[in-house]
Each structure stands twice: as C-alpha cells, then as structure tokens.
Amino acid sequence: MRRLPPHRFLKLDSTDLNFLSILVTDEEIKTALFDMAPLKAPASDGFHALFFQKQWDIIGTVVGNWVKKVFAGGNIDAKLNNTLIILIPKIQNPEDFCQFLPISQCTVLYKLVMKIIANRFKQIFLKIITQEQVRFIAGKNIIDNIIIAQEVIHSMKSSKSRKWMAIKIDLKKAYDHVQWDFIDVSLQAAGIPDYFRNVLWNGVPTPKFKPVRGIR
Q1: Is 145 found in the same domain as 94?
Q2: How many domains does the chain have?
Q3: Which of 96, 118, 164, 203 has most Cβ atoms within 10 angstroms of its Cβ?
Q4: What is the Cα–Cα distance from 103 to 100, expressed in whole angstroms?
Q5: Is 76 in contact with 202 (CB distance < 8 Å)?
Q6: Residue-wise pLDDT tens for the chain (216 aa)?
Q7: Domain containing 163: what range?
Q8: 102 part of a folded domain
Q9: Taking the mean position of all CA atoms in its chain, how far away is CA 42?
Q10: Taking the CB of residue 16, how many other CB atoms lie within 10 A of it?
Q11: Same structural domain for residues 159 and 54?
C-alpha cells in the first residue's frame, strides 16, 4: 500500500513524539496490568490477569524486564502472541459466518503490551482525531452523532430556500475490515516512530491462520 500524503494527515508535534519516546517505566507497566479485569476468559496458556496481579511481588521484575525488552525492539514469543478465536452465535441455529461474533482471547502479557500502547495513544490521539469521531473515544458517545443527525435532518426539512440530500453509509463492523497495511501507513502519516509501530506488528504469523483485517 502506498504512503498517505503527509500534508493531508494531521501529524503529531515534537512534544507528543517525545512523550511516545519515553522509556516504559515500572509504574506504567504495573498500572496497565492492574487496570485489567482480573478474571476475563484466559487465552491458550490458561492464565488470568488475576494470577499476575496476585503474584506481582514475585514476578513483577521479570514481567517488567520482558515488557521493556519488547519496546526496545525484542520479539514477542509466538506462544505469547497466540490468540484463541471463539465464535459466539448471535442467533439460534446460525447458518452463516456473519451470524457469529468472533471473540479474540489474547494472553495477558500480549494484552499488557497493547494496553501500555493504548494508554499512551489515548493522551495524544485526541489531537489528530476529528471531533466527528465519537465511537471508541473516552468521554464521547455514539449517541452524540445520532442527536446531530436528527438536528441536521430537521434543519433540512425546515429549510425551504435550498434542496438538500442526505446519504446514509453503512459502516457496520467497519473495524473488522480495516487492513493492517492501511493502519500502518496511517500511523506513518501521523508521524508515529518506526520503533513504536513495530511493536504493533510484532510476532510471527502462524501457518494455521493468517489474518489481514480487523483490530483486536
């Protein structure tokens, strides 16, 4: 996929880039771990977040060093990057794949790395995400756009001076169809450093399943 035109994509300033470049701290790692739900369904290794939380005084140093190694460019072991895909039927007697809800069960250590990244992104991405984006943004609600849409339609009906047209676009499950290549070039256009992006693509694809779309 070609690079996105940099002048058409909001870029992070030097302050934000410096923030992303700060070395991961022990406190940052511990906070991310203890923010996890303790008893969510485990991945293939069988460990809940509760195990790591309860045994933190014993394994905290080892886990912290491993996380720092990943952010320094180390690889995430294939076993730790292993994900169970569970299909939950949306209806009784499903007959098509789209009638299932796929749930990704990732290992705690994998989720820990991703949560640290997400926590940092939360603090800077509001600067490059438009105000119209309300889904999956802390402090915003998709209902906000529903209210705006209602007001727009009302104004269109009330206006007699112009002829208006509204177009409804179906964005159902859009995040399940986002190509990784597009995410990568978008992060490049925003100025995200290479070493930080490499953590997102860390790991080795398995011979059994090689996804190319979706966000977990």
Answers
A1: no
A2: 2
A3: 203
A4: 9
A5: yes
A6: 566 665 666 778 888 888 888 899 999 999 999 999 999 888 888 899 999 999 999 999 999 999 999 998 888 888 888 888 888 898 999 988 888 888 888 999 999 999 999 899 888 877 777 777 777 777 778 788 888 889 988 888 888 777 888 887 776 666 667 787 888 888 888 888 777 787 776 654 445 556 666 665
A7: 139-169
A8: yes
A9: 19
A10: 19
A11: no
Residue 133 lies in a domain: no
Query: Do 192 and 158 sit in the same domain of this protein?
Result: no
Give me the residues paired with residue 102 across strands. 87
Do 143 and 185 lie in a common domain?
no
Whether residue 114 is found in the same domain as residue 159:
no
The four Cα atoms 114, 115, 118, 120 give a dihedral, to 10 degrees, of -110
Q: Judging by beta carbons within 10 Å of its beta carbon (0-12, 13-18, 19+), is residue 65 exposed, middle or buried?
A: exposed
Give 75's contacts (C-beta < 8 A, 6+ positions apart): 202, 203, 204
Q: Which residue has the tokens 């996105």?
A: 4
Quick one: tokens of 3?
């690079």
154 assigned to some structural domain: yes
Closest-CA residue to 64 (of 112, 135, 121): 112
Encoding tokens for residue 187? Answer: 């992060």
Task: Say yes or no: 43 and 23 in one domain.
Answer: yes
CA distance 194 to 83: 25
* Same domain membership, residue 116 and residue 158: no
Pair (61, 162) in one structural domain: no
